[in-house]
Please model this.
Amino acid sequence: MASIREQAEKFWNGEIAVREQHPLTPTGESEEIAPGVMFYRWFANFAAVRTEDGLVLIDTGAWFNQEETVRMVRRFTPDRINTVIYTHGHVDHALGMAAFVAEGQKNHVARARVVGHRAVAARFDRYKRTAGYNGLINARQFGGPEAWPADYVYPDTYFDDRLTVTAGGLQFECHHGRGETDDACWVYIARRKVLCTGDFIIWASPNAGNPQKAQRYAREWAEALRVMAKTGAEVLLPGHGVPVFGAMRIRQILNETAEYLQSLYDQTIALMNTGAALDEIVAQVAPPARLADRPYLQAVYDEPQYIVRNIWRLEGGWHDGRPAHLKPAPAAALAREIAELAGGADQLVARALERMAAGELALAAHLIDWAAGAAPDDPAAHAARAKIYAARADESPATMTHGIFRAAAAESAAKAGVELPADSRKI
Model:
């Protein structure tokens, strides 16, 4: 297998496409990409940095594969873990920590200090309150079980804007910036010229719009990226995907990702200021055309239109500008009314299948949802709905879009007593 550095070159040049090897793919590979700095390609990447005072971990991997995370680190070194820095509190980045705590207890070694932004605690508290919801949406997004962690290792040291962590003569400069999360930070190791971005960079269109998750911050994300571009880093370790090597390339990926986000933000705000409704804005706003072929900005996870919706939510509230949507009729009542106008739910099913055959899947989805809403126990309606949403999933390269459509197809397939083909895109 090619080294991580060799793979990174191929990703940058387009020899390996992110649509073929998804940036969230947990390969389990590792490589020392700078003196004493071991990089791990995991579902969410993490790094282990050797110092004279022990290891410093930047992120810890996910809760669902945490034991293997410990084994990966221990293949690098048995050194005591001095400090762990969370780039943010998402469960794929911070919740491998429990296994390191368990290891320390087993070996009678003092637990590592954990450093994180002050908002990490509020995130963990929210996760406990909304465990059921988060389990459901993660299952929908990734096609896995409806499980969600119950235990969290909170930081011992919090910071607000900036904190420098010193270990064994190395300084780890932690900088807060709102982006994918409100508790995000990026870390710069100046003596190694290594920049750890967390999920500010994920080798895909920025995850600034996820339709099932909490608020994201496109404008501030762009600001943070522009600050990172001034560090002079020569190695960039992203939250997902492969590293970037070379100062010029690093400035490029940071500044162009900032441009991508800033453009979506500026276009959205400009149209909001004209009084345009949300659906009109979503239809008009697009990323800069000159960035369309960038391998690190492909919409394989999030999508630009979701980013637009999140900008609207942050800057304009939840009402989309359509008066009927302010206090809408219940979805089932609306479905029954439309079915009656159409001459029955079976007419809506037939029309939905016609629209599907014509390649108009978005219209087909509206029609079949009305049909299934008007006749919730009708196997024929659900069989058609399963077929339509399976087709929408198949044509959707973005993980979250594919996952939501696939979940809808599976829901109706179960009600209709039919089977869906295997999901070839599951990460």
Summary: The domain at 4-261 is CATH 3.60.15.30 (Metallo-beta-lactamase; Chain A). The first strand starts at residue 30 and ends at 34. DSSP finds 15 helices and 13 strands in the chain. The mean pLDDT is 96.
